[in-house]
Amino acid sequence: MKEIFKKIKRRVKYWWISLLVGILAFILAAWALVTPVETLTAMIYVFIAMFFISGISDIGFAVSNRDVMRGWGWSLVNGMLEVILGIILLIIPSTLLTTILLYLVGFWVLFRSIWSVGEAIELQILGIHGWGWFLALGILGIIASIVFIISPVFAGIFVVALISMALLFYGIFRIYLAFGLRRINKFISGND
Questions:
Q1: CA 141 to chain CA centroid, nearest Å
Q2: Structure confidence by residue, pLDDT tens digits, 91-111
Q3: Residues 174/19, Cβ–Cβ less than 8 Å
Q4: Is 152 helix (H, G, I), strand (E, B) or coil?
Q5: Cα end-to-end distance, the chain, whole Å
Q6: Which DSSP category does 92 fall into?
Q7: What is the number of alpha carbons within 13 Å of residue 153 lying toward its C-beta?
Q8: For residues 6 and 34, what is the distance between their CA atoms, to the nearest angstrom?
Q9: Inter-CA distances, 30 with 36, 42, 94, 149, 174, Å
Q10: pTM exceeding the 0.70 threshold for the entire prediction
Q11: What distance in Å separates the CA atoms of residue 41 and residue 49, rounded to the nearest whole number?
């Protein structure tokens, strides 16, 4: 039993790191709200990386499943398009990137959502349960992408607000976790 307390004590000894991470997340959430243009600019590079990672994984998935999956070519084409989009975003001048990125993300989400609807239909044909969720999420994605394409300003505000909320909730979680770890640390230290 003493060995278990030693292991736990080592893990909760630095509870304050979680507190610092939570405070940093709060600061980043505030920064994202106060500087929306800079936040979108930073997100550009996240999206570029996402295009490359998603595209390469789709290409690998399609090639490795071409013998067992009907419609594997769609995954291959999707992966190739995502890699091409990543390359295009790297070439475009930074002054145009924010506006172009919002349109590209809108069209990308539209393409992925239409693909998701197709996958849902294929899952239904195969008799796999849960296909309705894929269909519903695909339809929601189509609606969201149309909003992105029609109103890139709204899309930009939405993305910044979403980033801020995510950072805020993460900060709350980390601070709450820090105080929980601190209580455990005090309890264990008191039993030494």
A1: 14
A2: 888 778 878 877 877 888 898
A3: yes
A4: helix
A5: 12
A6: S
A7: 0
A8: 44
A9: 10, 15, 24, 27, 16
A10: no
A11: 13
